[in-house]
Amino acid sequence: MCLPDNYKLLEDISYTGSANPRQFLDIAYPENKTGGLYPVILFIHGGAWMNGSKEDQILVRLAPYLNNRAIGIAINYRLSDEAIWPAQLEDCKSAIDWICENADKFNIDTDKICVWGSSAGGHLAAMLGVKCKSSVSAVINQYGPSQMDIINMDHFKDHELGNPLEKLVGGTRQEKMQAVIDASPFYHIDGTEPPFLNIHGENDPVVEYEQSVILNRALREAGATSYLIKIVNGVHSLPDIPELKERISQFLDKHLFGLDVAAPSEDPVIAPPE
Length: 274
What we know:
By secondary structure, this protein is an alpha/beta fold. It contains 8 helices and 9 strands. It is globular.
């Protein structure tokens, strides 16, 4: 995937002022600023809070949705071997602060910031949506954990990097229950959240599908706008399905770009083509 012709890509910009590459971002923006202010789509990578990178995420994830009308940003954040919770969320907040501080330079509309993440990044995007409501206007959560006190991490028991949740909070779930609760988007919902689009494979072997069901239900019951897309037979990945791309575009059209379009179906079920 390529960026639109008018776009310039800047890489490895420090969003905290530090020299730590885990606090760098990439930004793709229109060079000929003829469209007024631009919304931002901020992508947060996955990797169980233990690995992963911003590299190529703008090209792989965001390029199809920029369309000369949005700025794409992808960030790194400190991993759990370097800093425990809430350092990861604090880094994401700092990235949003950088966006606001550099709004004039890049013609950014700071009232239109969508945060989008996958897996651990989906969790962080959801956390921004429930704890930074004044800074975030839309959230796309791909198969992110939402209620950490009940999530099943047994499949990580023999993982070479260890248990992701224990590494994130710096101890076992029982020892660090308050941090586990604090790191759960589910427990911060109050109904004033921005619109959420949750996407999850029904057979996800890493983060069970029920984690998105729980989050979607809690958001709706609190009065927030939330959608859940179930991928039939989907696993822990985002499949290349045209209908799914259309649903994402529809969500962004309505809730980021502010177009007068129909609301997405509340609970679409999408099956990969045979």
